[in-house]
Amino acid sequence: MGVEGCTKCIKYLLFVFNFIFWLAGGIILGVALWLRHDSQTTNILYLQLGDKQAPNTFYVGIYILIAVGAVMMFVGFLGCYGAIQESQCLLGTFFTCLVILFACEVAAGIWGFVNKDQIAKDVKQFYDQAFQQALMADSETNNGKAVVKTFHETLDCCGPDNTIGAITPLWRDDLCSKQDFLLKNPGEYPNCHKKIDELFSGKLYLIGIAAIVVAVIMIFEMILSMVLCCGIRNSSVY
Predict the structure, then answer these.
(1) H-type helices in the chain, by residue range?
(2) What is the pLDDT of residues 110-143, one digit of tens each?
(3) How far, in Å, CA of 59 to CA of 39, rounded?
(4) Collapsing DSSP states into helix, strand and coil, what is residue 199?
(5) Contact present, 56 and 45 (Cβ < 8 Å)
(6) C-alpha 231: how far from its chain's center?
(7) Name one Pfam family in it (predicted).
(8) Distance in Å from the first CA to the final CA of the chain
(9) How far apart are CA 218 and CA 24, in angstroms?
(10) What are phi and psi of 52, to 5 degrees?
């Protein structure tokens, strides 16, 4: 015997929310794959300075997002099917998966908040080391110059900060030769440290908005799934 009245409305409302949740999972998966293969982050985070690899903290977060998006699509499908079939077992499994997924999202959010500044800091330190090697060492014995040029061309910047640029103007023509406007305006050029901050803060901002939207949807779904499960249980008694 199927549910009736308000419980039936909750059933279809839960189906709609789960369909939105499934779509959100697909969007997160797509955004994560885009971030993973974005030319700016890929060009920078695949660099290697001698035996040292560029920091991979950002990619760890991306892989977590890919896993979360895939799981969300599976859980969304499970919730849709459980609501239509009015299965207490499937709805109970769906609720359990939501609780686990919500806990993982909170943990990932805390991890991201703690490490949001560290990601850019590690990349800036990696850039500074390459920059120093490009200035002081022979380019034939290290790839510092190649690493620095990749940063400059990818982020459209030049040098770690304006102070160093004003003190040592001679390196610009060698490492930023494609940016002629820098030679015309010696004291006014894009700061690579600032560009690195903008690169990662912008992407983390996008991830944060998606996470908040998904968390709100998950809370509504947990409430609706429990109400529907209780409604199915009560309707089966009569």
Answers:
(1) 6-37, 39-45, 57-85, 88-136, 144-155, 162-167, 172-175, 180-184, 192-235
(2) 777 777 777 788 888 888 888 887 777 555 556 7
(3) 13
(4) helix
(5) yes
(6) 38
(7) Tetraspanin
(8) 9
(9) 11
(10) -95, 130
Q: Which residues, listed in sequence order, are joined to residue 53 by a DSSP beta bridge?
A: 48
C-alpha 154/C-alpha 171 separation (Å) is: 18
pLDDT tens for 192-203 read 888 888 877 777
CA distance 137 to 202: 34
> What's this model's pTM, rounded to 2 decimal places?
0.63
Q: What is the pLDDT of residues 50-107, one digit of tens each?
A: 666 666 667 777 788 788 888 889 988 988 888 888 888 888 888 898 888 888 878 8
CA distance 87 to 41: 45
| The pair of three-digit structure tokens given for residue 196, joined into one six-digit string | 């690195």
Instruction: Please give the Cα distance from 158 to 152 (Å, whole number).
Output: 5
Q: Report all structural domains of the chain as residue ranges with CATH numbers, in order of start.
A: 6-236 (1.10.1450.10)
Cβ contacts of 3 within 8 Å, gap of 6 or more = 11, 86, 228, 231, 232, 235
Q: What's the CA gap between 222 and 215, in Å, rounded? A: 11
Comparison of pLDDT for 145 and 57, the residue scoring more: 145
- Scored b (16 or more CB within 10 A) or e, 185-198 reads eeeebbbbbebbbe
Q: Is the pLDDT of residue 17 over 70?
A: yes
Report the C-alpha gap between 14 and 218 in whole angstroms.
11
Question: What is the distance between the alpha carbons of residues 36 and 17, in angstroms, rounded to a whole number?
Answer: 28
Extract the tokens encoding 59: 């990619």
